[in-house]
Each structure stands twice: as C-alpha cells, then as structure tokens.
Amino acid sequence: MQRAVLIALATLLLSMVAGAQASKEPTFSTYKVTIERARAKSINFKNNPGARSFRSRLSEAISNGVNFAGHYIVAGWGCGTGCIYGAIIDGRTGNVYWPLPLYSLGVWYDDNGYVDRPVDYRKNSRLLVITGSPGVKDDAPENPSGKYFYEWKSNRLKLVKFIPLKTTQ
Fold this sequence. Notes:
Elements: H1 2-23, H2 55-63, E1 72-78, E2 83-90, E3 96-97, E4 105-107, E5 109-110, E6 113-114, E7 119-121, E8 127-133, E9 146-153, E10 156-164
Antiparallel strand pairs: 1-2, 2-3, 2-4, 4-8, 5-6, 7-8, 8-9, 9-10
C-alpha cells in the first residue's frame, strides 16, 4: 500500500516537472553568442539584387551596427497598419537574408493596443521572438497569433517554440 502511494506521488511529481518545463518560454541566455565587432561597410547589392528595393532601410540599419546574434543586424520597417517587414544582414559580409517570418508579419494587438516589441532580439543571442502572426507566402493562410520563438542558425530562422495568444474579442 505504501509503495503504491509512493509510486503515485513520484509519478505526479515527475509529470508536474515535465509540464512546467514544456510550458517554459525559451530565454535569450539559452542561445548566447559572442558579440563581434563585425562592421561591413555596405550592403552587398551584387549578391543580393532584391535588396536594392530597400536600399535606404538596409543602409541605415547596417550603419547602426550589430544588434543580433553576435554579428548580424535586424532591419525592419512598416508595411501598413499593424504590419512589419524585415531582413537580417550579415555584419561581416553585407549579405541580406529574407526570412519568411519577417515577411509582412502581423503585429499582435488587443484592447490595450499593440505590443511594445513585436520583434524582440538581443545582440548576444541567436533567439528572435515574434509576438503576432509571422509572415507567410502571398497565397497561404495567415499564421495563428502567438509568441513565436526562433533560433537563428545557418542563416535561417528555425522555429523553437510557439505559444498561442488568447484574444479578448
């Protein structure tokens, strides 16, 4: 009898610990990187012909220096009400990457307005967090609103975790 109670308590404790870990948000410190003094002088337009359309925004971003994942620069600009468009620039080479989640992403808002940081990142971390609805291809349905946690790895954003946001409407 005592043994059965101990086994039941141990099982309950283990399931509570597993549940707590599953709901835990990824942290910037988990994806830590060393910050470099990388400083490309300009955007590499030769290898990134699509970047010419956003010359001003990208050039302004690169002039401000590294702000993401050790030697990268996140650049973003508005594309309408509640919409952000963005790119990631390699601070070493000036190459521009166009990750799909930063393509016309919908910013999360509720009764209190828009979130303060719809795209959150750190200079010393590979983690990028989007609060809202990440971009999709033109003919695809919109992604559900939530907190999307991405790791920048091999010049791509890889989804690590998704936490849905509840609407008040």
